[in-house]
Amino acid sequence: MAKKKTIRTIPQQRTKAREQPPQERVRNFSEVTQVYRSEDAAVEADRCLMCPDEPCIRGCPVGIDIPAFIARITQKDLRGAYDVIAETNLLPAVCGRVCPQESQCEGVCTVGESLEPVAIGRLERYVGDAAIANGWVNIPYIEPSGFRIGIVGSGPAGMACAADMAKAGCEVTVFEAFHQPGGVLRYGIPDFRLPNDVIDAEIANLRKIGVRFECNTLVGRLFTIEQMVDELGFHAVFIGTGAGYPSMLGIPGDSLNGVLSANELLTRCNLMRAKDFPSYDTPMPLGKRVAVIGAGNTAMDAMRVCLRLGAEKVYCVYRRSRKEAPARIEEVHHAEEEGVEFHWLTAPLAVLDDGKGGVRGMRCIKMELGEPDASGRRRPMPVAGSEFDFETDQIVYAIGTNANPIIGQTSRLKLNKRGYIATDANLATSIAGVYAGGDIVTGAATVIEAMGAGRKAAASMKVYLGIRDPAQAEQSARIFGIDARERNFVRVRA
Amino acid sequence: MLEKQASMHSDSLSQFEIVRREDFSDVTYLLEVRHRLMAKAARPGQFVIVMAHEHGERIPLTIADYDRAKGTITLVIQAVGKTTREMQQSCKVGTALYGMVGPMGIPSVTSHAKKVICVGGGLGVAPIFPQAKAFKENGAYVIGVLGFRTKSLVFWEDKFRACCDEFFVCTDDGSAGLKGMVTEGIRAALAKHADIDELVAIGPPVMMKGCADATRERKIRTLVSLNPIMVDGTGMCGGCRVKIGDEVKFACVDGPDFDGHKVDFDDLMSRLRRYKDEERAALERWSASCRLMNQEPVAPLAAS
C-alpha cells in the first residue's frame, strides 16, 4: 500500500496539454488542444487526492464517478476507466472537449482549493479518445422491452436520451432535419474544438446499441408530434430541437449583406464545409475586417473560424467587460492568443452601409457598468457622447438565440412566454408521453446540460412506460425497513 | 456511391429516388421524387431543401405538385446556377438525390376569395398551379397569368387552361400571348374586372414587386412567395431574413408567403446578390470542367 497522498505529495503543477502554436493553428482547422500522452495522463491522474467527499461527482451534471475512473488511469487500466465513464456518459470524447469543467467538476475539486484543480476534462478526453482509437464500445445485454421511442433532434440532448432508452430495451429512432446527425456538435462547434471523426465515432456507438437515425426529416412539418404518438406508433417522444432561431440586434443596417448570424457562419463552415469551397458547393466569403458582436462560446468559435477562413483582422465587440463575458476562460484565452482584438464595454448602435448593399463600418458607443441586473451581472450603461465609428466590412451577430417556432406552430404543446416548450420538473410536456429537454426548454445552454436533460427525460420516460431499472428496484425495495413487495400496509400505520 | 453515402448518415425513410423527369425547355426541367411521407404532408405553398450530392449546397425549391397516391413530390427547376445545371445533367430517372427535406414553411391558406388572379413567372409557374387549382376547388373565379421569356419556354398551358376561368400568357418578346411582363396580363385583368379580391404571385422578386405595385392602388390583397438564400430552412441560420413592414422575418419558418404590399423587395433583391461572385466563379469552374470532360454544358453561360 502506497503512502497516503496529501496536497503536498501530489504533483503541484497541473499537467499542460500540448497545443498547436497560435501562429500555426490560425491557418488550419486541426484541433488546437492535443490529447494527453500516456505519461501526461499518469502524472495528472496522480494529482487526484481520492478525497472522501468526492465533490466532483456532484459537480458533474451526469454524475460520472470521476475518482473511480481516475484511479483506473493510475492503475494503467484504460479500458476500466472507460467502463466507469461509459456507465453514465456515452460521449466522453465530446464532453472532455466541450464541457465547461471550470464551473462544474473542476470548479469544486478539492485540489483546486490550494492548487490548480485536477484536469478532469483532459483526463476524460484521454480516455474517450483511447476508446475511439481502440474501437471500445460497451454493448450491454439489452432485453427488448417492446416500446418504440421517437426522438426529435440528434444533438446532445437527443443522443443522451436515445442512449438511455436503447439501453432500456426500447426501439429508438432519432429524427434529424439536417443531412448529417449530431446537431450543434456538427453544425455549431468547429473542427478545431471538436473534430468530425469524434462525432462520427460517438454516433456509430449509438448505432451499435440499436439506435436508428433518420436524417433529412423535419418533424413538425413532415409529421407532427401528435402524429408520432397517434399514427406512427411511438410510445413516447423526446423533443430536443435546440434553441436555434438567432437574435438580430434590431439596429439600422441589420439586413445589409455583410451582416450574418454566427449560426449561419458556423453552419456554412462546419456542416456545409464552406472552408473547402469550391470542392464543396457552399460558399462563405469573408470580409477583411470582421467584427463579432457578443462574447459567449459561440462568439469565440465564430471569431476563430473567421481567422482560419483568412480574415485579416477579427474584433470582438461586447457591451460588458471581460469579467461578465459568458464564454469559457480557455476560449477567450485561445481567441486572444490567435490575435482577436477585444473591445470590451462597447455596444453597436448602427451598421453603416457602403452604398452597394454591403457594410462599411459600425457606429458604436462606449459603455460603463452600473448596478447588477436580473442575471446578477452589472448592467452596462451608455456613456453619453462617446459614439465613434469603427471600420469593418463584415459583422457577425453572436448575441444568443430564441426558441425555434416550428414545433410550436405545428403542435398543441404548451409553450412558455418566451416560446420555449413548457415542461414540469420531470421534463414532461403538456402531452402525455411527450418529453422535452435541452435548449428548447431552457434557452441556450451547454452541451453537457443538454445531455443531462436528455438523461433526465429518459428516466421520466421509463417511469411513464413502466420500465423498471433493475439496479434501482433493488435499492428501493425496502421502505422504512419494510419490503415494498410485502404489501402489509398495516405495519406502516403502526 | 450516392446510396452508400446516404445510408452512412441515415437509416432512411426515403431514398429520394427520381421516378420521372420531363424537360420543358433547355433550361426548365421537372423532377418527380419518391417520398411517401412528404407527399402525404405537403400543402400548396410549401418548399423543400434539396442536396444533389454529398458536396452539394442546400437549395430551396418550391413544391410544384404532389401525388399522395403515388407518393411523389414534383419539383420544377430552372437551370440558372452551378447546382441547378449540374442537376440538369445528373438527375435522371433511377438516380437519387443526396437529400430532400421538407415540406418546409407555413402552407398557403387558400382563402374564400371570389375572384383571384394567380400569377406565375419563371420558376414560379409550376408552384402557382396547385394554388390556382385549390382556388378553383374553393369555387373562385380564377384568372391565370403566366410570364415567360419567349414562346419556346412556355409549359403547362393546358393544365392552367383546365382550371382557370381566364388565362393570359405574357412573353417578353411577344412570341406568344401578350407582349411584356406579367404586369401586362394583370393590367388587362384589372381593367376588365372591378371586383378582384386577391392576387397570388410566385416568381422572381422583380416580378412579384411589379405585381404588388399593380395592386397597391386598388388595395387588393396580394400574397407573394419569397425565395431568399437559405442554408438550413428550419429557422436556424437567419440567412433568409426579409423585411416585412418594420419587422424582420425569416422566410423559412415565418413564410414563405407574405403580404406583397409590405415586403421590401429592394432589400430582398440586394440580399439575393450576396454570393454573386462566388456563384459565378463556381459556375465558371464547373463549365470549364465539363468542357474538359468533353461534355458541353447544357445551357449557354450567358443566361446568368
Explain briefly what this protein structure is.
The complex is a heterodimer of chains A (494) and B (304). Chain A is an alpha/beta fold and 494 residues long. Chain A has 19 helices and 16 strands.
Describe the structure.
The complex is a heterodimer of chains A (494) and B (304). Helix content of chain A is 33%, strand content 15%. Chain A is an alpha/beta fold and 494 residues long. In chain A, α2 crosses α4 and α4 (66-74) crosses α7. Chain B has 10 helices and 15 strands. Chain B has helices spanning 2-9, 36-41, 82-90, 125-137, 157-163, 182-192, 205-216, 251-254, 265-272, 276-292; strands at 18-23, 28-34, 47-51, 59-67, 72-78, 99-104, 115-121, 141-148, 166-171, 178-179, 198-202, 221-225, 241-244, 247-250, 257-259. Chain B starts with a helix and ends in a 12-residue tail after the last helix. The interface between A and B is large, with 47 and 54 residues.
Dominant shape of chain B: globular
Global structural class of chain A = alpha/beta
Q: Between the first and last Cα atoms of chain B, what is the distance in angstroms?
A: 31 Å
Which range does the strand content of chain B fall in?
Answer: 25-35%
Indicate the low-confidence ranges of chain A by residue numbers. none
Helix fraction of chain B, binned, reads 25-40%
The protein's oligomeric status is heterodimer
Report the mean per-residue pLDDT of chain A as an integer.
86
| Biggest sheet statistics of chain A | 5 strands, parallel
Integer-rounded radius of gyration of chain A = 24 Å
Count of runs of 4 or more consecutive helical residues of chain A: 19
Helix content of chain A: 25-40%
